[in-house]
Design goal:
The chain is of the alpha+beta class. Among the domains are: 73 residues, Ubiquitin-like (UB roll), CATH 3.10.20; 52 residues, ADC-like domains (N-terminal domain of TfIIb, Single Sheet); 71 residues, no CATH class; 101 residues, Dimethylsulfoxide Reductase, domain 2. The chain has 18 helices and 20 strands.
């Protein structure tokens, strides 16, 4: 573990730690605007420059790894003066009204810390886009950190943004079209989450009174997120840093909460009377349901009644549902939507691998040299994992897709096997036969870990 001298104090830090993180962890955080832990280090804003003994010039703390014996100075008068000068340059063309309206943004916090007021000399030619249903764009507030561009490229893989021009004439705008949606934006909100200056923002923006950590309920990935509420209503969602989703969300988790307060959402029990739905109290509703179930059971027997659980309910809730069906109703007709879509795969997984669930980790995506997708569409059904697969392919992993459809990942694949519907098994048998006939096998692995190989080879 490297030992550093940070501002005169000795500290041990894990190998590979960025100086930016080491300084923050030891109580001496330095200013920065271009760094995002989800992205490759950039060092573009030059605010986090630190002096290192033996180095002729200051080095960016966000792009420099700790080494044993380093002596680092982070807040010398010269470095602080340099930070102040850089912030003044950024603030010169920044609108003062934006700082007053959103004091919580990282750029605004740094301006207050260094007692700098925005100059207000806005050029007025920044890119604007009001066509997006969830994201607002006002590039007159842009400070050219390029975090939006980089996170769209490096995390989501949509390549919506581009830097146009050079030097002081550089501007950030969409890469090809005249709007984010025209350039393929999938509304993951990563650019908004990363933007430190408010050039990209959620709309409508509502002040959050309380944040609550929870798990997204849309699909089975299990993304962690923080839900913002105000006056008892959900008003915002942001991704949480967690090993599952690594600070990223998809459209569904990030912006799909408006149904909570939709005008046509049912918020109390109702019974249809004379062809019209009538609001009633819970006691009346429960009595109505109980009497109808008793009447059906009495007339047709308990097997005339079935109970549906839910893959979105908790284990405890599903346990109570089946208990109610079997003990109260007397029926074994208990079912769930997962039986239709997951039972075949669960049976196969349990037979082959010992459990009806995945036996590997999402982090294996980045370790794999070849990925095989069979009959699935992760960028639509599990978008956060789909984005990680896209990034793996962009970084050199080979991709084989078995799917009759030309999905987004099929278009990126090295091989797309557009098998006809219903021909999956013949294709998989053909693949197995090729492995055996061309001796493309790890015999030692098969001998140690595989049962039934001889029967398969004979087949």
């Amino acid at each position: 573990m490297p030992r550093l001298i940070l501002n005169g104090q000795a500290h041990d830090v894990p190998a590979g730690t960025l100086l930016l993180d080491a300084l923050a962890a030891t109580g001496s955080p330095v200013a920065q605007l271009c760094h995002d832990a989800r992205l490759a280090p950039s060092g573009g804003c030059r605010l986090c420059l630190v002096a290192i003994d033996g180095q002729p010039l200051p080095q960016p703390a966000c792009a420099t790894r700790a080494e044993d014996g380093m002596v680092v100075h982070s807040h010398t008068p010269a470095l602080e003066a340099l930070r102040r000068s850089n912030l003044q340059l950024l603030a010169e063309r920044y609108p003062a009204s934006a700082m007053a309206a959103h004091p919580e943004l990282p750029f605004h916090a740094l301006l207050r810390q260094y007692r700098i007021q925005p100059g207000g000399n806005v050029a007025g030619n920044g890119f604007h886009d009001d066509s997006h249903p969830y994201i607002g764009v006002d590039m007159d507030r842009c400070i050219h950190c390029q975090r939006c561009l980089r996170i769209c490229d490096e995390v989501q893989g949509q390549f919506v943004w581009a830097a146009w021009g050079r030097g002081e004439h550089t501007r950030i705008a969409t890469a090809h079209g005249n709007s984010m949606l025209a350039d393929g934006c999938v509304s993951c909100g990563a650019c908004v989450d990363s933007c430190p200056s408010g050039a990209l923002f959620d709309k409508p923006a509502t002040a959050v009174q309380q944040w609550t950590r929870t798990t997204c309920g849309y699909c089975g990935v299990g993304c962690q997120m923080d839900v913002g509420s105000a006056d008892g209503r959900v008003v915002a969602v942001r991704p949480a840093q967690h090993p599952v989703n690594r600070g990223h969300l998809c459209l569904k988790g990030r912006y799909g909460f408006e149904f909570n307060h939709a005008a046509d959402r049912v918020t109390q029990p109702m019974i249809k009377q004379h062809g019209e739905w009538q609001p009633v109290g819970w006691d009346e509703a429960l009595n109505f349901v109980a009497n109808r179930l008793l009447a059906i059971r009495g007339q047709h027997g308990p097997d005339a009644i079935g109970v549906l659980g839910s893959a979105r309910a908790s284990n405890e809730e599903n346990y109570l549902a089946q208990k109610f069906a079997r003990v109260v109703i007397g029926s074994n007709n208990v079912d769930c939507c997962a039986r239709v879509c997951h039972t075949p795969s669960a049976k196969a997984l349990k037979t082959m691998l010992g459990t009806g669930a995945a036996t590997n980790h999402f982090d294996d995506i980045e370790q794999a040299r070849t990925l095989l997708l069979c009959g699935c569409n992760p960028t639509e059904n599990h978008p956060v994992i789909g984005a990680r697969i896209k990034q793996a392919v962009l970084h050199g992993a080979r991709l084989v897709v078995i799917d009759p459809r030309r999905t987004e990942l099929a278009a990126m694949a090295d091989i797309h096997l557009a098998v006809r519907p219903g021909h999956n098994v013949p294709l998989l048998n053909a693949m197995a036969a090729t492995l055996i006939e061309e001796n493309l096998l790890d015999r030692d692995f098969i001998a140690a870990r595989v049962t039934g190989y001889a029967e398969l080879a004979d087949f």
